[in-house]
Amino acid sequence: MFIDKAKIHIKGGKGGNGIVAWRREKFEPSGGPYGGDGGNGGSIILKADEGIRTLMDFRYKRNYSGENGEDGRTKKQFGKAGENITIKVPVGTIVKDEPTGKVIVDLKEKGQEFVIARGGRGGRGNAKFATATRQAPGFAEPGTKGKERDIVLELKLLADVGLIGFPNVGKSTFLSMVSAAKPKIANYHFTTLKPNLGVVRVAEEKSFVIADIPGLIEGASTGVGLGHEFLRHVERTRVLVHILDVSGIEGRDPVKDYYTIMEELIEYNPKLKDKPQIIVGNKMDIPGAKEGLKKLQEEFKDQTIYSLSAATSQGVEELKYAIWNVLSNTEIEYDSFDDEMYEEVYEEREVIVKKEDEEYIVEGESVEHLLESVYFDDVDSLRHFQETLRKMGIIERLEELGIQEGETVLIGGYEFEFFH
Fold first, then answer.
1. How would CATH label the architecture of 2-156?
2. Is 166 a known ligand-binding residue?
3. ∠ CA 7-70-365 to the nearest 5 degrees?
4. Residue 69 known to bind ligand
5. How are beta strands 305-307 and 277-282 bridged, if at all?
6. Is residue 90 a contact partner of residue 55, using CB atoms and an 8 Å limit?
7. Which residues contact 347 (CB under 8 A, 6 or more apart)?
8. What is the model's pTM?
9. 191 known member of a binding site
10. DSSP state, residue 330
11. Under DSSP, is residue 362 helix (H, G, I), strand (E, B) or coil?
12. How would CATH label the architecture of 158-328?
């Protein structure tokens, strides 16, 4: 078991701008504001998909952006909303905020979805700002930016496939050929204490985790040799690939070896005999292997026996796809993380009103966005800006800090003179 990790950058689409437009029709002499709202930006959605086993695809693509919303149109028509982007991840993926390391969500249910980066809101057109006392607003509102962040995807990988067989039958060689794993391979009958794991990529959104389980010796079920350590790993896999040496070069009988291994598995846990299993005759490049393969085929007439030469790559691709096909038809049981969770709240930062070195400062995403929507050469737009500052409680807070008429207030890099 190991942790598969991927860091990606995600960004919700920007909301479209509202527009300033006027009604200009022959039989409507009074005209009027006619600008429509911008469309919302597309969001980034994570979806747990049981068809995906690993995070390997995220090594090839690391940036994801939602589509921007379209600007509003005349005749009060809304701009088109941006398309959402759905990112498929394996069931059991934990999502963390990269800067803080905090857990955002644990996607442990099949089909579970989570909006990880919301798109920006579309801005309102000038038609939305018309009131009884402001019948011709000459300003509109820009769209807001989408949420942008770096996240880390983590998956606790339990091997989908366990390679089983006696030591020195070619398990490690096969693993090294189909994955990026680099197990130590040598011609000896001893083995490491931990399984080597690798990720095998079949195609886009199709990959699986394979484990070269330490070689088994008779008596493992009673604790001899690696014993229970080995068998505990076998229990956690979903499909067993039983690799047998059919060459006879060491005087081994592949049929006898098969039953010896299976006896150990069943002795430890009888349920292991029900796991899906693929039988492989290896070392087909060695003279005499055809006879050993024939013995297996005669013993297991109702099963497909795959032939393999891990040393020369013969049969490697065929076996890889055969494993994927079996996995695709096997139920999945996922383990997930138990980290303390927290709920992500998609609220804008609070507005901060403060006094520093005799200067009055107003900060915050919402007030900065408000500032972007101001048309400074339009009296109605400036009046709307002042009214909104008052509704947000900013004027009241400045007065509590002791601001006087004519003093300067800094808002988003702009200087304003304070007047009641």
1. Distorted Sandwich (2.70)
2. yes
3. 60
4. no
5. parallel
6. yes
7. none
8. 0.59
9. yes
10. S
11. strand
12. 3-Layer(aba) Sandwich (3.40)
- Which of 85-94, 212-221, 260-269 is predicted most confidently? 85-94
Q: In the predicted model, what is the mean pLDDT of residues 331-338?
A: 53
Task: Give Cα separations from 231 to 174, 235, 236, 285, 392 (angstroms).
Answer: 21, 6, 9, 30, 64
Q: Are 229 and 193 in contact (CB under 8 A)?
A: yes
The amino acid sitting at 393 is G
CA distance 91 to 336: 9
Question: Domain 352-417 is of which CATH architecture?
Answer: 2-Layer Sandwich (3.30)
Q: Any idea where the domains of the chain sit in the sequence?
A: 2-156, 158-328, 352-417
Tokens encoding 122:
């579309």
What are the tokens at 335?
Answer: 């383990």
Does residue 330 have a pLDDT over 70? yes
Q: Is 6 annotated as a binding residue?
A: no
Residue 377 labelled as part of a binding site: no
pLDDT at residue number 5:
85
Indicate the pairing of strand 352-356 with strand 359-363.
antiparallel
Please tell me whether 254 is known to bind a ligand: no
Please indicate if the annotation marks 370 as binding a ligand.
Answer: no
Residue 165 annotated as lining a ligand binding site: yes
C-alpha span between 212 and 333 (Å, rounded): 20
Q: Which amino acid is at 42?
A: G
Annotated ligand binding at 245? The verdict is: no
pLDDT of 343 > 50? The answer is no
Range name among 60-74, 91-105, 324-338 with the lowest pLDDT average: 324-338
**SS3 assignment, position 28:** strand
What separation, in Å, do the N-terminal and C-terminal C-alpha atoms of the chain show? Answer: 67
> Where are any strands of DSSP class E within 231-385?
239-245, 277-282, 305-307, 352-356, 359-363
Give the per-residue pLDDT at 191: 42
